């Protein structure tokens, strides 16, 4: 089948309001919401954890409106360690989605390769203090949470154009060969190395939207990413012949998104990509970069483990002092 051209709308604004999208018109959501105040990507983005949860609650109500009945919403996310305290993001998003009316369908663990992460080497504490109570594991996973709005009507496939149905067929060789059938997906993560367009965006690898789009949407349908970042979902949706909507609060990411989509190279008769900058868009990147740089220099001075948050290190020092006091 010859693939017809696709349409993509990218809106800079807060996705708790997706007024550009009609009710029940989206066939799949794939997203990774902002990692709550992640020390090396979004320090101080939210005033409090409650503010983050409120955004999630407002956003999921809007998501329920735009998602078609029976369809899937997938979140790539993880609990966040901020200043030595772990925030239960995975549990809270699950609860918020269920309270909004979605069915909780599955959880897939995305396992990153050992040694290819930019996490703090927390486990090194045991090497320095090989005694009980010093254990802090290195995190090499995230969750892919899969929710569904009601039940999918499989008669949809009977009504579907045969050519569309057949070109949306899942390649069983790829499905089995790359172990899509398991609840653990081994996928290499994107390292935000200096100079990469994903630097400071916490982008997910293309393989994640690739699998989800193939598994949960048909060619020509509409995929939504309400927290678009560098535009990974739009890029993959386009590659796979799907249309898309993307929302991103930070208008400073426009050039990065354009670069990722090869925007300047797209011929006029090809896919259409439209950018809208709403009045509620913000300019965040420069400010956040500044805060991250400041944080890095403080952390470097305070810890031998390169990425450990400052407060966590302080509480470990306290623990060590107490231990010395106890054993004296
Ligand atoms: C984890 S990143 C997404 C990365 C993306 N998956 C990629 O591959 O590049 C989350 C994004 O959500 C954006 N964001 C935060 N709050 C938002 C909001 N209320 N509405 C829309 N976007 C928001 C952040 O600016 C950030 O770029």
Which features does this protein show?
single chain; 328 residues; alpha/beta; Rossmann fold; 9-stranded mixed sheet; 11 helices; disordered C terminus; binds S-adenosylmethionine
What this model shows, in words?
The chain has 328 residues and is α/β, with parallel strands linked by helices. It has one domain (7-283): Rossmann fold (3-Layer(aba) Sandwich), CATH 3.40.50. Helix content is 34%, strand content 20%. The strands form 2 sheets. The chain has a 9-stranded mixed beta sheet with strand order 8-6-7-3-2-9-10-1-11, sandwiched between helices. Helix 1 runs parallel beside helix 2 (89-100). 36% of the residues are buried. S-adenosylmethionine is lined by residues 14-16, 32, 34-35, 55, 201-204, 227, 229-230, 232, 247-250, 284.
Short synopsis of the structure:
The chain has 328 residues and is an alpha/beta fold. The protein has eleven helices and eleven strands. It has helices spanning 49-66, 89-100, 124-128, 155-159, 162-167, 172-177, 207-216, 232-239, 254-260, 285-302, 310-327; strands at 7-12, 26-31, 67-77, 80-82, 85-87, 103-111, 141-148, 184-186, 222-225, 243-248, 272-277.
């Amino acid at each position: 089948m010859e693939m017809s051209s696709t349409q993509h709308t990218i809106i800079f604004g807060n996705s708790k309001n997706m007024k550009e999208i009609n009710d029940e018109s989206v066939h799949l959501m794939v997203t990774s919401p902002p990692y709550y105040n992640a020390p090396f990507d979004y320090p101080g983005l939210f005033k409090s954890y409650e503010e983050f949860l409120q955004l999630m609650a407002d956003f999921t109500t809007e998501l329920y409106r735009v998602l078609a009945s029976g369809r899937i919403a997938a979140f790539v996310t993880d609990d966040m360690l901020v200043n030595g305290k772990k925030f239960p993001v995975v549990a809270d998003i699950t609860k918020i989605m269920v309270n909004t009316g979605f069915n909780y369908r599955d959880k897939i663990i995305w396992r990153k390769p050992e040694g290819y992460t930019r996490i703090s080497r927390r486990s090194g504490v045991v090497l320095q203090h090989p005694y009980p109570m010093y254990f802090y594991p290195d995190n090499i996973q995230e969750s892919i949470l899969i929710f569904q709005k009601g039940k999918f009507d499989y008669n949809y496939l009977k009504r579907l154009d045969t050519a569309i149905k057949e070109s949306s067929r899942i390649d069983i060789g790829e499905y089995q060969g790359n172990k899509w059938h398991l609840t653990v997906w081994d996928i290499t993560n994107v390292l935000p190395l200096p100079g990469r367009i994903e630097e400071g965006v916490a982008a997910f690898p293309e393989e994640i939207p690739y699998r989800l789009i193939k598994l949960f949407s048909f060619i020509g349908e509409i995929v939504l990413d309400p927290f678009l970042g560098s535009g990974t979902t739009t890029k993959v949706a386009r590659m796979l012949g799907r249309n898309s909507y993307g929302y991103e609060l930070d208008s400073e990411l426009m050039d990065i998104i354009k670069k990722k989509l090869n925007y300047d190279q797209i011929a006029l008769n090809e896919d259409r990509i439209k950018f809208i900058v709403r009045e509620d868009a913000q300019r965040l990147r420069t400010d956040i970069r500044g805060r991250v740089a400041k944080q890095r220099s403080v952390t470097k001075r305070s810890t031998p483990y390169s990425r450990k948050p400052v407060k966590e290190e302080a509480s470990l020092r306290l623990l060590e002092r107490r231990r010395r006091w106890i054993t004296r």
